[in-house]
Design a protein that fits this description.
Layout lengths: L18 H13 L3 H12 L3 E6 L11 E4 L3 H17 L2 H6 L5 E4 L10 E12 L2 E10 L6 H17 L15 H11 L4 H8 L3 H15 L4 H10 L4
Antiparallel strand pairs: 1-2, 1-5, 3-4, 4-5
Helix pairs in contact: 1-2, 1-5, 2-5, 6-8, 6-9, 7-8, 8-9
């Protein structure tokens, strides 16, 4: 994780007024892999104050490694990390699909310490870049009204910027791969087979099949077999 000091969106960046200027600036920053500055430009353009970009496809891992870049106050990031992970884990696969590029607003906990003048309401928006699922979360000033249309544009530009930024510190692919056996199990459950039937087909025990399927759901951050199948179809695994 980087850039977690509460520096705000206007720290060290000049103003860009048009979408074309912003796209050009992001293209320049992608060459130097300066994702934090790019996110500050995006945050400033929408009228917000602080950004947090998280990789929800890594949310089940320990610690704060799923935070790509942020200038939220560090204690606030640490305070909300478990809560953010929990909310995402409780969402169904359909909810996740329907939420793409749709700005959503929520309140920070009463005991959360925020910067002076910032609203306790924050905006979040999810987006996909290939198999990578991201969430952009914005803090803004009290009384500020963010434009839904501009927020959606910023979501699209965030996806563009993330996809073209060549940064070895940003894991573009997940650190794990499904094993051949796990993919076989995914295929057979997508065909409607039960654990007992898959055990017969593959010539291994029912308990082993269930272990493979549990491993698949852990790796893909899904909660049910149906969600695991939806994940597999979406990512061309079966």
């Amino acid at each position: 994780m980087n850039d977690t000091d509460p520096v705000g969106a206007d720290a060290g960046v000049g103003r860009v007024d048009t979408k074309e200027e912003l796209v050009n600036k992001l293209a320049q920053l992608s060459v130097s892999s300066d994702i934090a500055t790019g996110l500050r430009y995006l945050t400033q353009h929408v009228g917000a104050s602080c950004f947090l970009l998280a990789r929800y496809d890594l949310v089940q891992e320990q610690g704060l490694d799923f935070i790509v870049s942020s200038d939220w106050p560090f204690d606030l990031v640490r305070r909300l990390a478990t809560e953010l992970a929990g909310v995402y884990a409780r969402s169904t696969e359909l909810d996740k699909c329907l939420s793409l590029f749709q700005p959503a607003f929520a309140l920070l906990p009463e005991d959360a310490v925020i910067g002076t003048g910032l609203s306790r309401e924050f905006c979040s928006m999810t987006l996909n870049v290939g198999r990578t699922r991201l969430s952009l979360m914005l803090l803004y000033r009290d009384g500020m009204i963010l434009s839904p249309e501009r927020l959606r544009n910023i979501g699209l530009l965030t996806g563009y910027f993330f996809s073209v930024t060549d940064n070895v510190n940003i894991r573009q692919e997940r650190d794990f791969e499904l094993t051949e056996r796990e993919i076989e199990c995914l295929f057979w459950i997508s065909e409607g087979k039960t654990s007992d039937e898959i055990a017969v087909i593959l010539g291994i025990s029912r308990n082993t099949i269930n272990n493979y399927i549990t491993s698949v759901m852990r790796k893909t951050a899904t909660k049910t077999r149906s969600e695991a199948i939806a994940y597999a179809v979406r990512n061309n695994l079966v």
